[in-house]
Amino acid sequence: MAKDKKVKVKKEKKPKTKQQKWAIGLGIALLALFVITFGAKLAIMPNSPLYSSYALAIMPKSVETTFDEKELVLYVEKNKDYDRTKEQPLEAFRVYYYENNDASGEKIYLENGTSLKGEKNESNLMVLQFLANATITDGIIRKVINRILLVLCLLLIPYFIFVWYIIWSIRYDKKKELKQE
Questions:
Q1: Is 51 in contact with 31 (CB distance < 8 Å)?
Q2: Paired sense of beta strands 123-125 and 115-117, if any
Q3: Which of 80, 131, 154, 159 has the fewest CB atoms inside 10 Å of its own CB, making it the most exposed?
Q4: How many CA atoms does the CB half-sphere of 32 hold within 13 Å?
């Protein structure tokens, strides 16, 4: 008796249908949006190296304040000399103002980059005014990111179940074909 050798013939791949292309594109888009949104959530965490840049971006450009009966417009910028390992988080920013509110003049930085000392030797942390104004925007951004992540999870779960079902049905059909031969 001669053994019949089965020769595996490479089957031609069927071209993907329009629906399959859309399903693959949708899956890739959902997954990419999820990764980008989750990455953004991680980037705005307070212990993130990008947090000071994020905080500066959502801070108001200027804050008006009265100090020693003098109207001042304060501005904030990133402290280029800031070292996260040695300094406090508030020192990541430098607050300054212009003499007589003339923006063409020289920047006058506050003591330690954060404090004004007046006639009564009071010290006010001016960075906190900027951060307090930024917390409203931060809260909105965090809520939006959390809701986007929730919606993406709710969309990805049925999508992955659908993909699992398609793969399972293809395998089931192949097993059925092999049994019939």
A1: no
A2: antiparallel
A3: 80
A4: 6
Chain centroid, CA 28 distance in Å: 19
Which residue in this structure is represented by tokens 């399972």? 168
d(CA 74, CA 125): 12
Query: What is the per-residue pLDDT across 103-118, written as a single tens digit (0 to 9) for each?
Result: 778 888 876 555 565 5
CA dihedral 138→54→146→165, nearest 10 degrees, is 170
Residue 71, token pair as written in the block: 């109207």
Q: Please report which confidence band the pLDDT of residue 23 belongs to, taking 50, 70 and 90 as the band edges.
A: confident
The confidence score (pLDDT) of residue 141 equals: 94
Taking only the tens place, the pLDDT of each residue in 34-54 is 999 999 999 898 888 888 889
* pLDDT of the residue at 34: 94
Burial 107-127 (b: 16+ CB within 10 A, else e): eeebeebbebeeeeeeeeebb
Distance between CA atoms of 60 and 137, rounded to whole angstroms?
Answer: 10
Q: What is the residue whose two structure tokens read 């030797």?
A: 121
Q: What is the 3-state composition of the chain as percent helix, strand, coil, each rounded to the nearest 5?
A: 55, 15, 30
